[in-house]
């Protein structure tokens, strides 16, 4: 018995769109699984509160210069986690960069999941609109953006 995911599907066949949607959902599910794994690493390394600001757009780029790193570390030093746990333990900038990395990767994966899901959902919406308009105003054999 062969899986439907392994069999090739012609682009203009009626099964092409559900096949594309299934692949899209599998890709998003794999990204969510990766996020859970990285989230576990973030938790085990106690990195979860190392980024003190939430900047959805500009926060996608980590600090690049020593001054930017020092500024991020100074903000972290004001948190209870640093004052009560990591400060007394003697955390320095190099250790801060390590915990920052895991939280940054976790947030980056979250951003990517959102972008992939939103773009492909928008594509699906636009394609379904085009198909609805196409069935009313064009030949039934015309291929639309989703290939259905």
Keywords:
148 residues, 63% helix, elongated, 0% strand, mainly alpha, 4 helices
Explained architecture:
The protein has 148 residues and is mainly alpha-helical. The protein has a domain at 17-46 and 66-87 and 95-128. The protein is 63% helix and 0% strand. The protein contains four helices and no strands. Helix 1 (16-44) packs antiparallel against helix 4. The longest helix has 45 residues, at 93-137.
Give the helices and strands, then pairings.
Layout: H1 16-44, H2 66-77, H3 80-86, H4 93-137
Reported for the largest beta sheet, the result is: none
Measured between the Cα atoms of the first and last residue, the distance is 26 Å
User: How many helical stretches?
Assistant: 4
The percentage of residues in β strands lies in under 5%
Structural class: mainly alpha
Q: What is the rounded Rg?
A: 23 Å
Low-confidence stretches: 137-144
Helix content: 55-70%
Task: Determine the mean pLDDT.
Answer: 81
- The number of strands is 0
What is the H-and-E element order? HHHH
Global morphology: elongated
